[in-house]
């Protein structure tokens, strides 16, 4: 006996699987980044270490909380790339070619702006705001 399955049910099922893939990729990225948490922390705190300052922790669990927050936000950022990828292949069957090209262009512009914002603007702002406070300890 043939069972009729509607198109909306198939799309819903595919969207559910893509959501699960995104969730599992977030967990996988989180585990990998937590393994490299010290290197990731050094990557973020490179500016502060160049000023020869030290970090002060007021609580014993503060370093762990900082590592968890850092890994969480970086895994969210890297998971955005996976979500873009999943959305692209979900919508590529239904969009015209011009919109697919615009989606790809938007994706690469997003990547470019994210790296530019980190490498240029954040370091420039840190240098501008912290050059007047040379005697202050940086507290995390």
Summarize the structure.
With 140 residues, the chain is mostly helical. The protein is 76% helix and 3% strand.
Shape: elongated
Most strands sheet: 2 strands, parallel
Strand segment count: 2
Overall average pLDDT: 81
How many helical stretches? 5
Q: Estimate the strand proportion.
A: under 5%
Structural domain tally:
1
CA-to-CA gap between the ends? Answer: 65 Å
Strand order of the largest sheet: 1-2
Instruction: Please write the string of helix (H) and strand (E) elements.
Output: HHHEHHE
Task: Report on the architecture of this protein.
There is one protein chain. This protein has 140 residues and is mainly α. It has one domain. Helix content is 76%, strand content 3%. The protein contains five helices and two strands. It has helices spanning 7-35, 37-44, 46-50, 62-91, 97-130, and strands at 55-56, 138-139. Strands 1-2 form a two-stranded parallel ribbon. Helix 1 (7-35) runs antiparallel to helix 4 (62-91), helix 2 packs across helix 4 (62-91) and helix 4 (62-91) packs antiparallel against helix 5 (97-130). It is elongated, with a radius of gyration of 21 Å. 1% of the residues are buried.
């Amino acid at each position: 006996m043939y069972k009729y399955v509607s198109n909306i049910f198939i799309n819903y099922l595919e969207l559910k699987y893509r959501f699960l893939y995104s969730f599992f990729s977030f967990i996988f990225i989180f585990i990998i980044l937590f393994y490299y948490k010290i290197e990731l922390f050094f990557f973020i705190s490179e500016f502060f270490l160049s000023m020869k300052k030290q970090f002060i922790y007021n609580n014993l669990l503060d370093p762990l909380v900082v590592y968890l927050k850092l890994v969480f936000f970086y895994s969210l950022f890297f998971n955005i790339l996976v979500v873009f990828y999943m959305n692209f292949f979900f919508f590529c069957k239904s969009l015209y070619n011009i919109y697919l090209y615009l989606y790809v262009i938007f994706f690469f512009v997003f990547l470019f702006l994210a790296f530019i914002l980190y490498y240029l603007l954040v370091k420039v702002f840190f240098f501008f705001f912290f050059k007047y406070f040379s005697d202050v300890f940086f507290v995390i």
